[in-house]
Structures are given as structure tokens and as C-alpha cells.
Design brief:
This protein is an alpha/beta fold. α6 links the parallel β4 and β5. About 2% of the residues have low confidence.
């Protein structure tokens, strides 16, 4: 092809698809969860590798260095959580208690984060420092003051992200509504197909969540933000509506099909990637497992070292009883060395979870079934022994059990016998692995990776949101109250009209009846025979 033709082709493609120069992007990712930081970091690193300049406000330092990625650390956040909250106490919490704890946790932690040096340093940057803002949309709403400060939604566009998937917290952004008839609030252990009482309970809890979000959580975040900012801010609900689109950690294979608007982009499993070679000591340990190995990890929020002593003894006895042919790799960092560790068990403070799950000798994953761990287990096709503790872990567990790719272990009722039985059922029955491998195929079978899709939509927002918002993606539902969205005002008018028609009809019939009685009675009086007078 001649140089002139190449030039014409390049210009044509540029005009057709548009181009995005390296952008200055602010990422507000204040959620204090190391697992969620893995999901967020996958996006930040992906954007940095594309040449964008990323400034991330986060309680987590960068895990991988990149000259285009700068972290402003909200120092001391995890220590604050550890000193204030006992995460394991949520195991026996009711749905209402869990809801109240979430509201309190979100407000208090976000308030602390705004008091850190990193949060104050970011406020000192000029308002025109960025070209786009990426923000988490739940558990850090007080950081929305930065959206206002840097002109998000008015001068530059804003993209929302959430590792929690869709829920009522995304409704204020998209203008859609998650229907309680088919969408179970993640703190409840229900599926999409609910019976009457489950739908009733889910509707009540969804209503309570929305009420507490609007009248407890948002006002408290508003107060915390204005105290940190030093002057009044627009209502947070207005800032919410300035978000152009939202990237959600959602995929139908685990979350089920959901009706969504074009501005809701599913990037479930964005953190998932093919396994890389393991460190030699871990690889040698797994390779030596004759029947295979179990990977045991309770995530980053529920840490094994904080489990009750009697539960740790049960877990160790269970693993010892599996015999030498089944090995266990356990993510565990005990403050004091454990005694009598079985020879088939290897403890490690930190493990590259995806690389472990991708090892061919791993035959099962004993997990808390957090959403990210669940997605990674599906991606690598490993069946699960589920030990949920709180929040969406119970929901994920029920879904996995219903799909017959997992067995449920109730932590508060943990015994050696029940734990061993569940482990051996998953290991010995090949159907668990077969079904999980089918789910893995569904999760991987996409025209592009979730990360590629996320980056495309962020660059799309940069191209199309130069006035502050991508108006083409804004739903008319954003301008409707909930009762208008669900047509309750229309139904109320119809009900009132029908009621008035019925009342009028009944009243009319009553009047006609009275008139008829009166006429008939009057005629009867006229024809009434006169009584003869007696002499």
C-alpha cells in the first residue's frame, strides 16, 4: 500500500472511531478492602499501561509499580478498622443488624479517611488537574466532595465503578430500579427466583436499605464531607446523577440475568487472568500432592489468624485426617506459631490466589465465597467448599450450592465430621468439577476481556463527555421519584377513579332503590282498601 493511501486510511479510521490522548485521571477508590483493591488495581494498571496518567486515592499502596500510576495513600485506615470493628462478629448478625452495621461502618471509616494527610493533600491540587474522574459508588460517598472540587459532571466526565455489582446503590446513578421481585439484596441468602415470603422479606429489606441510604447514610456522608471541605457542598444525590456510566462487577453466570440500561457496563471478573508460574516452594508442595491439593483462604477481611482457637483446632484435625495424599495450602499468618501442624498442610502469609487456583493440582477451593474469590474460582474451574461469614457471601454460597458446584459449611456449627464430609463430597464427585468447568467456559466466552471492555468505556466517556456528562446515556428515570417510576401515582389515580365510579354507582343504585320504594309505597297507599266502619 502506498504511503498516501496509508495516510488516508489512518485519517479515515481516526475520524470514524475517534482518538483519545493520554488523559489525567483521578481514581477515588477509598473502600477499605484489600480484595476490592485487587479489582480496582486491575483497572488502574490497565489504564496506566495505555498511557493515561492515573492518580489514585486509596487506603492501599500500589502493588505494581508503573510510571503512569501515582497513589495517594489514606494511611492508617486498616488499623482504624481493626481497632474499631470485629469483622468476625458479623457472622451471627441478622439482616437488619448487618444493614445498620454497613451504614455505620461506611460513615465512620470515610470520615476517618478524610482526616488523613493524603486526603488533605489531594484537596490542595488545582481544580483543573484532571480530565476524568473514576469513583467508587458505595462505602465512600463522602469522597464525592472531590467530584465537586474538580468539576466532575460539569467540566469533566465521571465514571462510577463498584466491585459489589449492581444493587440499589446503582439506581441513583442509572435511573433504573433493581426490582425486589427478581433481585435479592446481597445481604439476604436468596436467589432471583423467590417464593412469596422471600419476595416479601426482600422487599421490606430493600425498602429499609433505600430509606437508610437516603435518610441516614447520605446525610452523614454529606456532613463529613462538608466538615472536611470547609464549606457547603451540593447534595450528594445531585453529584450521583452527574455520573455518566457505571462499571459493575457483574456477570450472569454467578449473578443471573438482570435487566440493565446501556450505561451499566458489566465487567465481572475484571481482575481474573491466566495463572502465572508459582514460587518454587509452593509449586513443589502442590506438585507432590498425589490425589491433589485444597486451597484454603478466607479472604482479606476475615483472617484465619483471628478465628477462635477451638475452630482452628477443628480445621487442623480435619486437614490431618485427609491423609498424606491430599495436601492443603492455607493462607494464614498466625501471630504465634501453631503447634502440631500436619505434614500435609503448608501455611503462607500471602499467596497469589489466581496463580494457585490455576495450578492443575488444585482440586477444590475452601473459601468464604466473597464475590471476587467466587469469580476467580469459576474462572479457573475449581469447585468450592463454601464457608460464608457475612454480607453477600451467604448469597453467593446459596447460588453456588444451587448450581451444584459447591457444598456449604456453616462456620458456627463447624465440626471435624461435617467439614470432612463436605470436603470429600466435592473431591470424590467429579460432577462438581465438570459443572464448574462449564461455568468457567461461560465466564470466559466473551468477545473481549472485561478489562478491555472497561477501558473502552472509560475512553468512550473521555471522547463523548467533553461537556461533563454523556447525555445520550442518561435515562429519563433519573428525573422520576420511585413512586413515579413504578407508576404508583398512575395506579393511585386509576384506583381512585374506579373507587369513585363504584361509590357513585352504589350511591345511584341506593337512590334509585329509595325512590322506587317511595313510589311503590305511595301507590300502595292509594290502592289500599278502606276499612269498613263497625256499628
Amino acid at each position: 500500500m502506498e504511503p498516501k493511501m496509508l495516510l488516508h486510511t489512518f485519517v479515515a479510521f481516526s475520524l470514524l472511531f475517534g482518538t483519545v490522548n493520554a488523559a489525567r485521571i483521578l481514581a477515588l477508590v477509598p473502600t477499605a478492602s484489600r480484595s476490592h483493591n485487587i479489582w480496582n488495581s486491575a483497572l488502574m494498571l490497565g489504564l496506566a499501561k495505555k498511557g493515561h496518567q492515573i492518580t489514585a486515592l486509596s487506603p492501599d499502596p500500589a502493588k505494581e509499580s508503573n510510571p503512569n500510576l501515582k497513589h495517594i495513600v489514606l494511611e492508617g485506615t486498616y488499623e482504624q478498622i481493626q481497632d474499631t470493628y470485629d469483622i468476625e462478629s458479623f457472622v451471627n448478625a441478622s439482616a437488619i443488624e448487618m444493614l445498620q452495621a454497613m451504614v455505620e461502618f461506611s460513615s465512620e471509616i470515610c470520615k476517618y479517611e478524610l482526616s488523613t494527610k493524603g486526603a488533605k493533600d489531594l484537596l490542595q491540587m488545582p481544580p483543573d488537574s484532571f480530565d476524568l474522574i473514576i469513583t467508587e459508588v458505595i462505602f465512600g460517598e463522602c469522597t464525592f466532595m472531590y467530584i465537586h472540587h474538580f468539576g466532575g459532571g460539569t467540566r469533566i466526565p465521571v465514571v462510577g465503578i463498584t466491585a459489589y455489582g449492581i444493587g440499589p446503590w446503582t439506581d441513583r446513578i442509572t435511573g433504573s430500579r433493581t426490582l425486589p421481585s427478581t433481585f435479592a439484596l446481597p445481604i439476604l441468602p436468596y436467589m432471583s427466583n423467590m417464593n412469596f415470603w422471600e419476595r416479601f422479606h426482600n422487599s421490606m429489606m430493600t425498602g429499609m436499605y433505600c430509606f437508610s441510604m437516603l435518610y441516614e447514610s447520605y446525610p452523614q456522608h454529606q456532613k463529613n464531607a462538608e466538615e472536611a471541605y470547609g464549606k457547603p457542598l451540593p447534595p450528594l444525590v445531585d453529584v450521583y446523577s452527574n455520573i455518566s456510566l457505571i462499571l459493575v462487577n457483574n456477570h450472569y453466570v454467578i449473578n443471573g440475568p438482570q435487566a440493565q440500561l446501556p450505561g451499566v457496563i458489566n465487567v465481572g471478573g475484571m481482575q481474573c487472568s491466566p495463572a502465572k508460574p508459582l514460587p518454587q516452594d509452593i509449586k513443589s508442595f502442590l506438585d507432590g500432592a498425589k490425589r491433589g491439593a485444597i486451597f484454603f483462604s478466607l479472604g482479606t477481611n476475615v483472617r484465619s489468624e483471628f478465628l477462635p482457637k477451638e475452630k482452628l483446632e477443628i480445621i487442623l484435625d480435619t486437614f490431618r485426617g485427609l491423609g498424606p495424599d491430599i495436601r492443603v495450602l492455607w493462607k494464614f499468618d498466625p501471630e504465634k506459631p501453631l503447634e502440631n501442624i500436619p505434614p500435609n498442610v503448608l501455611l503462607k502469609k500471602w499467596l497469589p490466589q489466581e496463580d494457585v487456583l490455576g495450578h492443575p493440582k488444585i482440586i477444590a477451593f475452601a473459601s468464604h465465597t466473597g464475590l471476587l474469590s467466587t469469580q476467580e474460582a469459576i474462572y479457573h474451574g475449581k469447585p468450592i467448599i463454601a464457608i460464608p461469614f457475612f454480607a453477600d457471601q451467604h448469597t453467593n454460597t446459596r447460588r453456588l450450592v444451587d448450581m451444584k458446584v459447591a457444598e456449604h459449611v456453616v462456620f458456627t456449627q463447624l465440626t471435624k465430621e461435617t467439614f470432612t464430609k463436605k470436603i470429600m463430597k466435592v473431591i470424590d464427585d467429579p460432577s462438581y468439577k465438570q459443572r464448574m468447568e462449564k461455568m468457567s467456559q461461560l465466564l470466559r466466552d466473551q468477545p473481549q476481556t472485561p478489562l478491555e471492555r472497561a477501558i473502552f468505556w472509560i475512553e468512550f466517556t473521555l471522547r463523548q463527555g467533553k461537556t461533563g456528562r454523556v447525555e445520550a446515556l442518561r435515562s429519563a428515570g433519573l428525573g422520576l421519584n420511585w413512586y413515579q417510576y413504578f407508576l404508583l401515582d398512575i395506579f393511585a389515580v386509576i384506583f381512585f377513579s374506579i373507587t369513585m365510579i363504584i361509590i357513585s354507582a352504589v350511591f345511584g343504585i341506593y337512590v334509585l332503590y329509595k325512590c322506587f320504594r317511595k313510589i311503590v309505597g305511595h301507590k300502595a297507599e292509594k290502592v289500599k282498601p278502606k276499612k269498613k266502619k263497625t256499628k
